[in-house]
Design goal:
Two copies of one chain form a homodimer. The first copy, chain A, has 243 residues and is of the alpha+beta class. The first copy, chain A, has helices spanning 4-18, 30-36, 41-53, 71-78, 80-83, 87-90, 111-117, 156-160, 163-170, 189-194, and strands at residues 57-60, 64-67, 97-107, 125-134, 137-147, 175-186, 202-212, 217-226, 232-236. Chain A has a six-stranded antiparallel β-sheet with strand order 3-4-5-8-7-6. A two-stranded antiparallel sheet of chain A has the order 1-2. In chain A, strand 4 (125-134) and strand 5 form a beta hairpin. Chain A binds a DNA duplex (19 and 19 nucleotides) through helix 3.
Chain lengths: 243, 243
DNA sequence: TAGTGGTCTAGACCACGGT
DNA sequence: CCGTGGTCTAGACCACTAA
């Protein structure tokens, strides 16, 4: 059974997206909602908190709770803010992703890798290079470092599919935060060879550290994208409720 | 006076970053914290919610509340996820930002601008081109469209400083969500002229729509960055508490 | 000044983890 | 099984907005 406040949030969200409230742009007051759902005001507030965090409503003390004017847009984009984790998931429906393994090794980490993954020089890491295709066209080059202790049992068959679904479904780990550095760069001979691009083509590089839910970093990687096959989309919901 | 739960969150955060709790990696139970701060458990939970949203703790039902292992790193990065809004703010302390106005006009919007800013063809927009310098070195070219109705009263003196501080401090508006598309591109003759880069230099382009707290879009812009002066940093805290 | 959302309380029961 | 966090209640007072 799901929590009551989540159920209420879902129902309210549905109504908002349906347009059931849009005539006035304001939601009923919390006491009225509490009576309608035969619950307490605190529970209604927890439900509204979810919608606030999702960016589809906002409240003004002393005034009321209102629907944001671009709900439909945000509702669409909302799904995208998490999509970024894992290429296989993010391109679902847009085409077929395939992978070619260029290199797959295990070795000791260098200093940069130790620093980013918070490990010592004695903890072995996987070193993975993959070329990934979208509809058989080269899309990006991936260079991934993962600590063996954290993500054990990677095999070539895992690499041909999706590392992320292996982590979530097989290892039952929950993926948490990530920090990414995004930059443009000139192409090098590796890019030219594998991504089939010319010397003058720029490259979009993403360098990232990804953490598990517990805060343990499990991936340090660089991906180099062909500049002409897809942007990176970043959504910033900016709900500063906590400050 | 600030809310009690925010005060408690701040105190707990300070202790966590101090290392006061790190010996065990677990926080005291909610009842004990409630007694210590002479408050109710609900209030403690609201405080913990903040720290969860900030990504520095996580809880397991039936077990306890734990500190994430890379708190210091995340605490540092945390400030950066919002930094992205407004260049003047984001580079504070890293150098001096100056601006040169290349173009400043008012006109009717084209179709793309109408679609992104959710306005009609009859609502005038500002068209602003600025070249921005970091420590007198050209950093990026900015091409900004803002609806006049939404952000009135822009003048050249505003443009020489910061549009965002004008919006927040003069107009008293609150900036909310943003969606960004990030890509690499070849430099064009504009880039080469203003950013003083060569034909073979790549460009990092960011195309974004920025919304007010109320959900009204107020900026559609493209910025073209020199590839060798600073990455874009994106932090994804991924706290799926609401799902 | 009336009515709204924001905060807070002191209890209660449930779901889950570890024993 | 016990102890933890997760949810929920039925009130209360305060802060703010708008008339």
């Amino acid at each position: 059974m799901t929590a009551k406040y989540k159920e209420i949030a879902l129902q309210l969200k549905t109504r908002i997206l349906n347009g059931s409230y849009s005539s006035t742009n304001a939601l009923p007051e919390q006491m009225i909602l509490a009576k309608e759902f035969s619950t307490s005001r605190m529970t209604i507030q927890k439900a509204l908190d979810i919608l606030r965090k999702e960016g589809i409503i906002f409240s003004r003390q002393g005034s009321g709770t209102y629907i944001k004017q671009n709900v439909n847009l945000l509702a669409k984009l909302d799904t995208m803010s998490d999509e970024y984790v894992g290429l296989t998931k993010s391109t679902a429906g847009k085409g077929v992703i395939t992978s070619e393994i260029i290199d797959f090794d295990i070795r000791f980490p260098n200093e940069l890798e130790q620093k980013n993954l918070l490990i010592t020089a004695h903890e072995p890491v996987y070193e993975i290079r993959r070329l990934r295709f979208l509809n058989k066209q080269p899309l990006l080059l991936e260079y991934t470092i993962m600590p063996n202790s954290c993500i054990p049992g990677i095999t070539e068959s895992v690499l041909y599919h999706s590392i992320y679904s292996y982590i979530e479904e097989e290892l039952k780990l929950v993926i948490g935060a990530a920090t990414r550095h995004i930059r443009a760069d000139k192409s090098n001979h590796y890019d030219q060879k594998y991504l089939d691009c010319s010397v003058s083509d720029p490259i979009l590089e993403v360098e990232q550290v990804v953490y598990l839910d517990s805060g343990i970093p499990f991936e340090y990687s660089k991906t180099r994208h062909r500049f002409d096959r897809g942007d990176i989309i970043v959504v910033n919901l900016n709900s500063k409720k906590s400050e």
